[in-house]
Amino acid sequence: MDISLLLSIPGFLIYAQWQMRWVSESESGLRIPSLPSISYTLTLSSLSSFGPGLKIAHRASLVHPNYPSQCPDQGMVEEVLKSKTESGRAGGEGLSLEDLARLRVSRERVSESDLESERCRLDRVHEQVALGESALTWLLFAQKASILESSSSLSSSSSPSSIPLSYFTQWFGEERIPDGWTRPANTIGLLDARKIAGVVQQEIDRQR
After folding, report:
1. Contact present, 47 and 57 (Cβ < 8 Å)
2. Which residues of 32-71 are buried (b: 16+ CB within 10 A; e: fewer)?
3. Residues 21, 198: Cα–Cα separation, whole Å
């Protein structure tokens, strides 16, 4: 069995909307009293629904609001760009790891200011999903060499890499491959993502 098919099975089990009905003899064309017919659908609405356990939607998304949303919130995309322009922090014209951590902290504060703050607070599973979002964004789009080497520090002197704002806008805001982007030269593995997520977590803890 193809490994990608095997890995997709949990997603179907978690998100698919399953339906079963009994097909009559007249519908099936067979001389059998009835047959079970099982079908499923997988939609963007399913993927964006909040819930406990392994559902991936969470209330610390960089560009999605704290309710089920199938499309990025353009106002939130603009807020990210505006906050970078006004902050004048390390990372030049792009987003640094420090910026990604700052955005996460900001989103969590918005969620916790909700009247239902207990419901909006991230659990352990969704906290890791949110960290993974930041880590994979960095690994896919950070420009300049030695991305993993630069993850050991967040200062501008030793971490020159950054995510171009145009990449962020086109990927998150327009949901398309950014102009001029090329795939990473090396395969991005779980250990790579875990390493970057750990760096982002350290910076989040520092900023809280």
Report:
1. yes
2. eeeeeeeeeeeeeebebeeeeeebbbbbbbbbbebeebee
3. 47
Q: Helix (H, G, I), strand (E, B), or coil: what is residue 48? A: coil
d(CA 196, CA 182): 20
Collapsing DSSP states into helix, strand and coil, what is residue 189?
Answer: coil
**Ranges of each domain in the chain:** 1-42, 51-207
What's the confidence (pLDDT) of residue 65?
Answer: 86
Task: State the pLDDT at residue 178.
Answer: 95
Question: What distance in Å separates the CA atoms of residue 165 and residue 138, rounded to the nearest whole number?
Answer: 12
Q: Pull the structure tokens for residue 93.
A: 């014209």
pTM above 0.85, yes or no: no
Please give the average pLDDT of every successive group of 10 residues along the chain, which has 208 residues.
48 63 56 61 69 73 84 91 69 82 86 55 81 92 61 46 93 94 89 93 90
Count the residues in the chain. 208
Determine which helix (DSSP H) or strand (DSSP E) holds 83, and give its type and residue range: helix 74-87
